[in-house]
Design a protein that fits this description.
It is a single chain. The chain is of the alpha/beta class. It folds into two domains: about 1-95 and about 245-335, Isopropylmalate Dehydrogenase (3-Layer(aba) Sandwich), CATH 3.40.718; about 110-240, Isopropylmalate Dehydrogenase (3-Layer(aba) Sandwich). About 40% of the residues lie in helices and about 20% in strands. Strands 2-1-3-10-9-4-5-8-6-7 form a ten-stranded mixed sheet, sandwiched between helices. β9 (about 250) and β10 form a beta hairpin. α1 crosses α9, α1 (about 20-30) runs parallel beside α11 and α7 (about 205-215) packs parallel to α8. The longest helix is centred in the middle third of the chain and has 17 residues, at about 145-165. The relative contact order is 0.18.
Length: about 325
Amino acid sequence: MNTSKTKDKYQIAIVPGDGIGKEVMEATLFVLDGLDVDFDYVYGDAGDECLEKTGTALPDETLDIIRNADACLFGAAGETAADVIVKIRQEMKMFANLRPVKSYPNTNSLFENIDFMIVRENTEGMYIADEEQYTDEGAIARRIITRQAEERIIDYAFKYAINNSKTKVTAVHKANVLKKSDGLFREIFYEVASDYPDIATEEFYVDATAMYLITQPESFEVIVTTNLFGDILSDEGAGLVGGLGLIPSANIGENAALFEPVHGSAPDIAGQGIANPIAMMLSAVMMLRYIGENENADKLDAAILKVLNDANILTCDLGGSATTMELANAVKNNL
């Protein structure tokens, strides 16, 4: 592991977004200030409130800020999520969505030994939003699967396995029904797998995978799948380990990366100061690893783990009564 600094100063795009996105972002930046890393934060606006103020949910200025940064931290978007985060992924060609599912202590996790990564294709599938107008019979949407995109994401999954000491990659699809599109995904999976003979492979239909995540989640190491399936399975994974407040994610492209909690803007608790900031902080851990600050990533990860182990200062979703900033202060004190 490379633990040396890669730059003296990092320009980080900060897009808090809507609802609790602003609160968990504030808490996370407060904690990051306790690390020995020099950040230059550049703020961008996006989301529901931005749409109301400016007439657009994702201004060009925000895209430029993200494009020019070393990495981006994103909070949450409300009803405009498809116009914000999906568009950012597509504009920045962030083809890989990484969603780790890991059990932590004192978090209502259903199992104690879960630790796997969902590698989700991020640019095509059902999320291209190619829906025709309503027809007399109903509505029609297109699902796009291309060889280039699927080869790229599957190869990324195998490289991730090697770089993170994983021994198996699982392909998830529905090729028994979607014979052409998921049939192609399955075919490409085994073509790419032939380049990685030391990594074991397996495949499951997505519905079977949904069951196996409940019955044998400890058997998974790296899951690679298409856009919609990855989105659904990662939320199921969150349910296994205590909820969306604990699941970070990364969106990785060749020249850009964005890190965000999986949870949404949670308008029902926004403004109350009780949101769990751990998913946002764990997203920052992923960002630190991406920019090469592995030693500081380890420090932040350990500080979060100590707070969870101690279980004295937890937010209400974890059975405690701490505020967002009280939890953040506890994490910072552990650095």
